[in-house]
Write a structure and sequence with these properties.
InterPro entries: Apc1, Apc1_N. This is Anaphase-promoting complex subunit 1 N-terminal domain-containing protein. One of its GO terms (molecular function) is molecular adaptor activity. The protein is mainly β and 140 residues long. Helix content is 9%, strand content 35%. A 4-stranded antiparallel β-sheet has the order 1-2-3-4. The chain has a 4-stranded antiparallel β-sheet with strand order 5-6-7-8, with no helix packed on it. The protein starts with a helix and ends in a 26-residue tail after the last strand. The C terminus is likely disordered.
């Protein structure tokens, strides 16, 4: 059974676009190697295929075609990525929605920041070639 089917919607009746990406579980592991949640630590030790499937307001994190976690958001999802902010050890799942940024930690904490601008109106840095991104240069 595919993850699309596990989303609870048949492929014939869905009109929403979807995307998915495979990721190395090392990306979601804490930098200090001390995961705070035994369930997550166990899942991240599984070297199988880790995938995020995104459609509409839903995200499914699967491991080897088995659902590990499901997330349902309040509004449509624009982008999803794993990250480490600053010097924090814990991996964070950052979810950019039309009207908010939601950050889920692997230990279960959730932070939601309401945005004052509709993110669909912003130009996407993901659609630009890497050389088009602005990076401050250092003085020589």
């Amino acid at each position: 059974m595919s993850i699309e089917a596990l989303d609870g919607k048949s492929a014939e009746t869905v009109t929403e676009n979807y995307e998915y990406f495979l990721f190395d579980p090392e990306i979601a592991r804490d930098r200090d190697d001390e995961d705070h949640c035994d369930e997550v630590a166990s899942a991240l030790n599984n070297r199988g295929d880790h995938e995020l499937f995104i459609r509409g307001k839903r995200i499914i994190w699967s491991i080897d075609a088995r659902v590990f976690k499901r997330f349902t958001m309040e509004s449509s999802i624009v982008k999803v990525c794993w990250c480490h902010l600053g010097h924090t050890a814990e991996a964070l799942l950052c979810i950019l929605q039309i009207d908010r940024l939601k950050i889920h930690s692997t230990s279960g904490e959730v932070v939601s920041v309401q945005l004052s601008v509709n993110t669909t109106l912003l130009p996407s840095v993901y659609s630009q070639p890497p050389s088009a991104h602005h990076h401050p240069s250092t003085a020589t």
